[in-house]
Design a protein that fits this description.
- This protein is of the alpha+beta class.
- It has one domain.
- Strands 2-3-4 form a three-stranded antiparallel beta sheet, with no helix packed on it.
- A hairpin with a 7-residue loop joins β2 and β3.
- The longest helix has 8 residues.
- The protein is globular, with a radius of gyration of 18 Å.
- Keywords: ATP-binding, Cytoplasm, Cytoskeleton, Microtubule, Motor protein, Nucleotide-binding.
Length: 84
């Protein structure tokens, strides 16, 4: 694999959004595939499904800990060394 990784994190619905939007029913997370996300949109001819693939998809219920464990080795902590 290359040096670029693409992750997708779907945030939970906010309380004010819950009033307008019941659920995230337009998004589908395959149960045994953490790399795919499907979006079902309404078009004039009916529902249209769009499938997306990522290096990893985190659904709304994913915790900060779970996400950090996945990306910890990719994150570089610290800055540049100070010149002498």
């Amino acid at each position: 694999q290359g040096n670029i990784r693409v992750f997708c994190r779907v945030r939970p619905v906010l309380p004010e959004e819950e009033e307008r939007q019941k659920t995230l029913e337009h998004l589908h997370f395959p149960p045994h595939d953490n790399k795919t996300l499907s979006h079902v949109g309404r078009e004039r001819r009916g529902d249209v499904r769009y499938d997306f693939s990522f290096d990893r998809v985190f659904p709304p219920g994913a915790s900060q800990q779970e996400i950090f464990e996945e990306i910890a080795l990719l994150v570089q902590v610290g800055g540049r060394k100070k010149p002498p």
